[in-house]
Amino acid sequence: MRQPKGFEDPANPNYVCRLNKAIYGLRQAPRQWYTTFTTFLTQLGFTHSQADPSLLVFRQNNVEMYLLVYVDDILLTDNNSQAVTKLMTQLNSRFTMKNMGTAHQFLGIKIDTFPDKYILSQSVYANSIVQMAGLQRCNSVSNPSFTKLPLAKPDDAAYFDASMYRKLIGSLQYLTLTRPDIAYTANSLSQHMHNPTASHSFQLKKLLRYIKGTLEFGLPVVRSDLRLRTFSDADWASDPVSRKSTSGFCTFLGDTIVSWTVKKQTTVSRSSTESEYRALASATAETIWIRRLLADFGIKHDSSVDIFCDNMSTIALANNPVFHARTKHIEIDQRFVRDHIQKHDIRLLPISTIDQIADILTKPLTTPRFKLLRSKLTIVQNCQFEGEC
Asked: Does domain 1-101 have CATH number 3.40.50?
């Protein structure tokens, strides 16, 4: 602690208030802890990742260590057990720490280890959301959303009140960390938290019934090639009230999905090409960020990263050096994408709408198509023992 600026005591410049106990919610506490902890790590030879400030990297004499810090939770991996033992001794000399051993859970995400893969899941957390909603005994469904909303009667009562609706939606936002299959529905319902209606409550109930039937679903992390691929899509004017479009994209490293996003666009697009281009610009930014993050792990991509888009007009616009007046309203996005194409950071490729994986992130789908795209997202049922599922 330090004396606040403007209130220093010149006679006792080192005097500070004695803090007996830090209360959670103290705004500067996590920041000060992060600064203190990472400063000590940099003194030991760690450097900050250029892509993610919570990741610190150590490379010396063929020794590599990667440390991920989130407030007071730390995840550490390495290629040298002696170096880690030395690091733990140094950290314990400065901080009170506890070695939890091999990672089985991190920030509520369960990590199951198999001979050829890891599976990340949140089954316990998902079950707690279902229990919070009081739907433990309900029947499950195969699709989290409606392609066509059922007609609601004026006197229909909402299944959840406004307070419970907001609480559930907030919880579901964290569940999407390992469940991209519910990302679109959760995002759509979160846009009505200020004034949920009976219809929104009905849709939320269906989403929770879907989660109940897929509690053990998770994301596999498998050993495969390290080729980056991104799928970008948009649903033009999908919001019936504001007429704003929905952007969605997902990025794969080999056979493992590593990033995905569902977001309503901030402005109204005047054409499907414009909405697709805005989604493409967001996907490009995320892809470049992932590429930089992989470089911190020593994984460098000399070739262009493939980005797949199912809108031919968008692809033509991205590759066209002529700037048209009618595209002036997306000038920044256009220049951003074209710069990375010219630098050979990305390569924009066409893909049929049928094969567009990002389709599941932008609109409600029929159950057969939803299950098909869910499988392409690599979401699987977590089986502890072979033959169990």
From this structure: no
Q: What is the DSSP string of 269-337?
A: -SSHHHHHHHHHHHHHHHHHHHHHHHHHTT----SPEEEEES-HHHHHHHH--SPPGGGGGGHHHHHHH
Length in residues, the chain:
389
Q: Per-residue pLDDT tens for 204-262? A: 999 999 999 999 999 999 988 889 999 999 999 988 889 999 999 999 999 999 999 99
| pLDDT tens digits, one per residue of 128-140 | 999 999 999 999 9
For 226, phi then psi, to 5°, come to: -110, 35
> 224-351, what's its fold?
Nucleotidyltransferase; domain 5 (3.30.420)
Each domain of the chain, given as residue ranges in start order, spans 1-101, 120-216, 224-351
305: left (phi over 0), alpha (psi -120 to 50) or beta: beta
Which pTM was predicted?
A: 0.86
